[in-house]
Amino acid sequence: MEIRPATPADIPALCRLLDQLFAQEAEFSPDRDAQQRGLAAIIEQPAAGEILLAEEDGQVLAMVNLLYTISTALGAPVALLEDMVVDAAARDRGLGTQLLEAAIATARSRGCRRITLLTDTDNLDAQRFYARRGFARSPMIPLRRALDPL
């Protein structure tokens, strides 16, 4: 298995993974056009973020997305970990752990001092997965407001 940065040629395979992820999330649903736009924007703007994928025998089996910003509290870069998904047929083989470790190493190499992620409140498997790898609940709660396009 190889972990590498995603390229524009990987977008169709990444969309298939996102379809699986968004089909199980409470707040989102698959939208191929939006997914393609978002993936392309990240891949084309490395300062904004990057996508890592796990590939085996030419098949993309897992992905994770890191977005970067600056924390005024830390005075340093931080990362938002999004879209961590392992293909359903490839789970329970350690791919998620390897991909998450690569994402942490990548964020650390970019000087990030913190990684934040969101998961559905009812996704207890994901919460246990992240907790076993050093992530802890924050006393802060996420709030969102959708914005209409101009």
TrEMBL record:
Keywords: Acyltransferase, Transferase. It comes from Azotobacter beijerinckii. Residues 1-150 form the N-acetyltransferase domain. PANTHER family: AMINOALKYLPHOSPHONATE N-ACETYLTRANSFERASE-RELATED-RELATED. Gene3D superfamilies: 3.40.630.30. SUPFAM superfamilies: Acyl-CoA N-acyltransferases (Nat). This is N-acetylglutamate synthase, GNAT family. PROSITE patterns: GNAT. InterPro entries: Acyl_CoA_acyltransferase, Bact_Acetyltransf, GNAT_dom.
